From TrEMBL:
Upper taxonomic lineage: Bacteria, Bacillati, Actinomycetota, Actinomycetes, Bifidobacteriales
Species whose genome carries this gene: Bifidobacterium longum subsp. infantis
Record field: compositional bias (Low complexity): 131-141
Molecular function as annotated in GO: DNA binding
Residue ranges, annotated region (Disordered): 96-141
Domain HTH cro/C1-type: 21-51
Protein name: HTH cro/C1-type domain-containing protein
Top-rank lineage group of the source organism: Bacteria
Amino acid sequence: MAASEIEQWWIDKFQENLGPIRKVAGWTTQQLADELGVARQTVSNLETGKSPMTKLQYLALRTVFSAEIARREDRDLARIIKTLVDDPIEQRIRERRAQEQDGEAGADNAPVNTGCGNAADNATAEKRKPSAATLKASKTTATGKPTLSTAMQALAVITGALASGTAAGIITYLMFPDGGPNKR
């Protein structure tokens, strides 16, 4: 399982839930667009799936929402992101790793015939699976797990910490040591 594949899962899942996340934050499409410095139509196209979300857009959105969570100490928003995006992706990663471990016990990359669909469908499904060479060539840790970019790791950790509320006060203090953005 390549790190880029995992990152794309995160991006896709975030895009799928962008509308509800924005609404929980209490923002209109225009307000989110203003926060990002983009046109309202850009946010609308991302929410409706008319435009695919890029990694840069994903990172910008996660950063904007993380800053809002810290600013307002909004654990509900953090929990929504964790519940709708992070938890399902982490579960998917665990399931994929289990499948790969099961696959290593059997024949490597042997086509799986489920008895459903035709040969062309099965061949298409096989093409989507990364080959053993691709898996080995992807960036991995010493344990063989793929590594995500530093930004993706940081955002996942920050969102998890904010969802638990443990780090919200510390991050707020670090961002606003004078007591907040409106206290001067």
